[in-house]
Automatic annotation (TrEMBL):
Keywords: Hydrolase, Signal
Signal peptide: 1-24
Protein name per UniProt: Alpha/beta hydrolase
Recorded GO MF terms: hydrolase activity
Species this chain originates from: Sphingobacterium corticis
Location of the BD-FAE-like domain: 49-215
InterPro entries named among the record's database cross-references: AB_hydrolase_fold, BD-FAE-like_dom, GDXG_lipolytic_enzyme
TM stretches of this protein: none
């Protein structure tokens, strides 16, 4: 485990937060449907993406960002801090419980990632540099797609081909909304097929797990992530990190975003060294 104090200073030095370093040009397209020719009104309303593309740059990495909200609310977004960092950002909207089951929400997330794989190169990016990220429920979706390979396999995508995952305060046991579907109390932990922990395996893409401080986070959130981290290491994954942001509660999106940028840039630097 790496503590926040050292990492936050390094992240600011590595990333830089001054607008004077921002790229001058970028394009943004909103409300692009990622299901083709759907006749479902709810899908057509919710299953949309916004995409931010850096101009005058090619072969860039793309962060697919899933918003939080307990899988019952929220809205697609492109976090402001992620702009002007040299990579694309895709903000994903998805359907909510109880209108649909949690499994269908994960399937929405997979459909959105499939859209990115199919379309990012035509916009100048690389399908070999797609990163999944998000906060809370959104981070849960990213981990589910990465660890349970079946969702992306349906789209002829190997989850191992993801460039990496940066998860901000995800549930790693069965999501509480999925437990509610089964009539299980919110404070009764379970691990079943709707838990990232259920799908622990070897040879996953690089994964960075970030939470707030263990005593300030939502109940057990740090411990869930610590357990996933430990199990991923035990089965043989080396490129896995657990970062605890001391002094921050569940609303730890910032300062976690600079760490997200630092992680992606670190993976890109390693990729360049291989060439």
């Amino acid at each position: 485990m790496i503590k926040f104090a050292q990492l936050f200073v390094l992240a600011l030095l590595f990333v830089g937060i001054s607008d004077s370093f921002a790229q001058a040009n970028a394009t943004k397209n909103n409300n692009i449907p990622y299901y083709e020719n759907s006749k479902d009104d709810y899908i057509n309303k919710q299953c949309l993406i916004d995409i931010y593309i850096p101009e005058e740059k090619t072969d860039f990495a793309t962060i697919v960002w899933f918003h939080g909200g307990g899988l019952t609310g929220g809205q697609k977004e492109i976090p402001e801090f992620l702009k002007d960092k040299g990579f694309a950002v895709v903000g994903v909207g998805y359907r909510f419980a109880p209108q649909v089951k949690v499994k269908e929400i994960v399937e929405d997330a997979a459909q959105a990632v499939s859209w990115v794989f199919k379309n990012i190169e035509s916009r100048g990016g690389s399908k070999d540099k797609i990163v999944l990220s998000g906060h809370s429920a959104g981070a849960y979706l990213g981990l589910m797609l990465t660890l349970d390979k079946s969702y992306l396999t349906k789209h002829h995508i190997d989850a191992d081909d993801l460039f990496g995952v940066v998860s901000l305060s995800a549930q790693t046991i069965t999501h509480f909304t999925a437990r509610q579907e089964q009539g299980i109390d919110i404070n009764q932990p379970t691990i079943d097929a709707l838990a990232p922990l259920f799908w622990v395996r070897k040879d996953v893409p690089p994964i960075t797990l970030i939470t707030g401080g263990r005593d300030l986070e939502m109940v057990g959130r740090y411990e869930e992530n610590a357990y996933l981290y430990r199990m991923l290491k035990i089965v043989g994954n080396e490129d896995v990190k657990l970062l605890e942001l001391d002094g921050y509660d569940h609303g730890m999106v910032y300062p976690a975003l600079p760490l997200l940028v630092k992680e992606v840039n670190g993976w890109l630097a390693k990729e360049d060294q291989k060439k």
